[in-house]
Automatic annotation (TrEMBL):
GO molecular function, one term: ethanolaminephosphotransferase activity
Any single biological process term in GO: phosphatidylethanolamine biosynthetic process
Keyword tags: Lipid biosynthesis, Lipid metabolism, Membrane, Phospholipid biosynthesis, Phospholipid metabolism, Transmembrane, Transmembrane helix
Family (UniProt): Belongs to the CDP-alcohol phosphatidyltransferase class-I family.
Lineage top rank: taxon: Eukaryota
Annotated TM spans: 33-50, 62-80
Keyword Lipid metabolism: yes
Localization in the cell: Membrane
Name used for this protein in its record: Uncharacterized protein
Length: 159
């Protein structure tokens, strides 16, 4: 249930902002508001997906929700006044830049991961073709669940 906290909180904050907005932000800046909703939701969900793919625990509260909560609070209480549209523009710019930055970082990390994934797959293929004297003739260390370092095999390099 932890990955659901941020999206639920996001939509709660956005619903509060739309309903209680003094200057009717959704009517005045429909495209910008929907762009911001899409970008922030995409960022939250992309982080959840990456956490699931990498078997890491996702964060309960996405960091973009804190400035959003401040903007919503300031807008709903009337602190922003006529500057609500400017606050939406600034927050949308921040969210878009953060999402692009995250995408670039994930792309760079995936290139590193591809290299280590290729090495892992190469090790698996080498284990499958390993001829191990300790376990009998032409026995596969992988079938015996013996690591290559313990096995002491002379393996043929397929690449």
């Amino acid at each position: 249930l932890l990955p659901l906290v941020s999206p639920v909180l996001l939509f709660a904050l956005l619903t509060i902002w739309v309903i209680l907005s003094p200057c009717d932000i959704l009517a005045k800046q429909t495209r910008l508001f929907l762009w911001m909703v899409g970008v922030v939701f995409s960022n939250v969900i992309c982080r959840v997906i990456i956490c699931q793919m990498s078997d890491t625990r996702s964060e309960a509260f996405h960091w973009l929700l804190f400035p959003l909560a401040l903007v919503v609070y300031a807008a709903v209480t009337g602190l922003l006044g006529k500057n609500e549209e400017m606050a939406l523009t600034i927050f949308t710019t921040l969210a878009t830049a953060a999402h692009i930055h995250y995408g670039v970082c994930v792309s760079k990390m995936s290139q590193i991961t591809k290299i280590s994934f290729r090495k892992y797959m190469a090790d698996i293929l080498l284990l499958k073709t390993c001829c191990c004297a300790a376990w009998g003739s032409f026995a596969s260390c992988l079938e015996k669940s013996v690591p290559l370092s313990v096995c002491g095999c002379k393996c043929q390099d397929l690449f």
